[in-house]
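Appendix B, record 7
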Amino acid sequence: MTHFTALLAAALLCSLGAQAQAQPLRHDLLAQCPQLAAELPELLASAKQQVQRDGVVRAQLRIDADGRVHIETLQGDRQYQGAVRRALQGTRCGASQVAGAQRQVLNIRFEDPLTPSLPTHYAAR
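Structure tokens (predicted):
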């Protein structure tokens, strides 16, 4: 579980960093919601253990000026959507320094980091 948690945190940070680079006018999500990087992998680890297969969920979030997180859309593996929704619903971020709401996108990948990545013709030997 610790490998999965580390991998999910890395994927989350990469997704957040790419979003911040693509939209330079927005504030960095990790700067505004630092608890996401620490808490989200742990909250979602049990979902991976229950479903026991790889999957991807894309979540569009709106963070209002008071720091409340609103989930606008969830796309991807339906078996993981409920866990992602529950994990994000209670999230509060710091009050925004910009007028109006901010939109962010998270791409959350559920995968087993210990799965062999050898091509099948090597795995059969």
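Remarks on this record: The CA atoms of residues 60 and 73 lie 5 Å apart. The radius of gyration is 16 Å.
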